[in-house]
Design a protein that fits this description.
By secondary structure, the protein is an all-alpha fold. The longest helix is centred in the last third of the chain and has 117 residues. The radius of gyration is 45 Å and the shape is elongated. The chain contains 15 helices and no strands. Helix 10 runs parallel beside helix 13. The termini are far apart.
Length: about 375
């Protein structure tokens, strides 16, 4: 677009030979916005669905973290719009260094904040039963387990930029508007596939914290290698495109390419180290929570054991008390029996005495009569 249009602050989203925006300055970096309808529609669609889910959740009295909402909408979709609607979009086909900033935002910053917004958790709590079951089935499918496995996701994440910049694919994305837009989507998807299982809060196949830390640590050198390879290359990436643009301001394509390699190297390592630290903190907190859960489990087991022993002691006391009562009743019975036998014996002896006296009395009675 012409310089006057550029001064007005609105440039073409995809510069082409003969339609190059004016020289990039700090002012134009802040004001040089473009109008790209597809990214705006995508952001409105996913942002609207997220807000509807939050509204539905709160309408039935359930809470939802404001931080999660801000992370998804403000930082996730917000950085996505900045990368696709700001001066980064106006100059991403003009300067490889600007494209590299855009690349890092879409591939490493936007996915992280989208993941921290926990959109899958929100969907599982608000979707109808049929769709919730389908989403659960997808999350626990073999496909999900494969694409989220750190070794596979990390391999794709690392291989992706090498395949982009050292094949004709990159120049194709510069010349074809549709492929250019799809490249932006592709950056976000690959980033989500890598970062969501690492940092996300959603229920999905997830490796252990040590495995995730190892995966992040293993990918750190590849950004440096790619950045160094781009910086040290004597051949301009997509050289035909940049030479055909006819840009007459700023650094040469080769010099700008060196800047782009440095951006990739530095920002990739910085973001990777931050992710490593966040994972380490998450691991520490998860260990603390696990320790608390284990303490509670042991406390419950102790209470159950104490209750069992108390019941056993109570039953033992009751059994002992019942035995003593039985013995008391038995003693009384024996005493009564002994008394009865003694009385019967006495009465028998008295009867025998009466029998024995009677015959002796008869002679005395007869003598008296005589």
């Amino acid at each position: 677009m012409s310089g006057s249009a550029g001064d007005a602050g609105m440039f073409l989203a995809h510069a082409t030979p003969g339609n190059v925006p004016p020289e990039l300055t700090p002012i134009r970096l802040l004001t040089g916005w473009v109008f790209e309808p597809i990214p705006i529609l995508v952001a409105m669609l996913f942002g609207g669905l997220y807000l509807y889910g939050v509204h539905k959740l709160r309408a039935r009295g359930d809470a939802w973290s404001r931080w999660r909402t801000f992370s998804f909408l403000g930082l996730g979709l917000g950085t996505f719009l900045i990368a696709t609607e700001s001066a980064l979009a106006a100059y991403d086909t003009v300067l490889l260094s600007v494209h590299m900033v855009q690349h890092m935002v879409l591939a490493m910053i936007t996915p992280i904040f989208l993941a921290l917004g926990a959109p899958i958790t929100l969907a599982l709590r608000t979707l109808p039963t049929k769709w919730r079951n389908r989403l659960n089935a997808l999350l626990h499918s073999r496909f999900s387990k494969v694409v989220t496995f750190p070794a596979f996701a990390g391999f794709v994440f690392v291989l992706n930029p090498f395949a982009l910049y050292f094949t004709p694919w990159y120049e194709l994305t510069l010349r074809n508007t549709f492929m250019h837009d799809m490249n932006h989507v592709h950056f976000v998807i690959i980033g989500c596939m890598w970062f969501w299982p690492l940092l996300g809060l959603d229920p999905m196949p997830r490796a252990s914290h040590p495995m995730r830390l190892l995966a992040v640590f293993a990918t750190l050198p590849f950004h440096a290698w790619l950045g160094i390879a781009i910086m040290s290359s004597s051949t301009v990436l997509a050289g035909d495109w940049y030479n055909d643009l006819g840009r007459d301001w700023g650094a040469s394509p080769l010099s700008d390419q060196g800047t782009a390699g440095g951006i990739l190297w530095g920002s990739g390592d910085i973001i990777g180290l931050l992710v490593f630290l966040v994972l380490f903190v998450q691991w520490a907190k998860a260990s603390e929570r696990e320790a608390v859960r284990e303490d509670r489990r042991l406390d419950r087991l102790e209470l159950i054991e104490a209750g069992r022993k108390a019941r056993e002691e109570r039953l033992a006391r009751e059994a002992a008390a019942g035995g003593e009562a039985a013995e008391g009743v038995g003693g009384v019975g024996k005493s009564v029996a002994k008394s009865t036998l003694a009385g019967d014996s006495a009465r028998t002896e008295d009867g025998d005495s009466a029998v024995r006296v009677a015959p002796g009395a008869e002679p005395r009675s007869a003598g008296a009569a005589e």
